[in-house]
Amino acid sequence: MIDKLGFPSILANRWPHCHQERFFVVVSAFNLPKFDQMHAPCAVCGLNFESETGFYTGSLYVSYALFVAWTLTNFGLFALFLGIDVLSFLWPLIGSNAVLTPYFFRLACRIWFRIFMST
Ligand SMILES: [Zn+2]
């Protein structure tokens, strides 16, 4: 079931279609000059990764949801569960959101692709 939803390929930077070619050219999301570069049509299955111009613009909604989930999870953990003052972890939380931006961007693109291009 989990494999049918494409979670392993989404998390492993693989195309949800053939599970072989890398979704993004570079492995690390933190290689900032190249973190957003995708392969041209897949070398294995030939699928075009960008079906239309601006296709991945919608992945911003997914990215937003990932940031909200990250922020609420950290707020729940630190403020509600551990009882730490909100102001003491607010700046580290904002910093973590900034650091995780390339990772969430890439994850959101893969999820978006999986939602609309799965076969
Ligand atoms: Zn492929």
Automatic annotation (TrEMBL):
This is DUF983 domain-containing protein. It comes from the Bacteria. The chain crosses the membrane at residues 61-84, 90-113. Keywords: Membrane, Transmembrane, Transmembrane helix. The keyword Transmembrane applies.
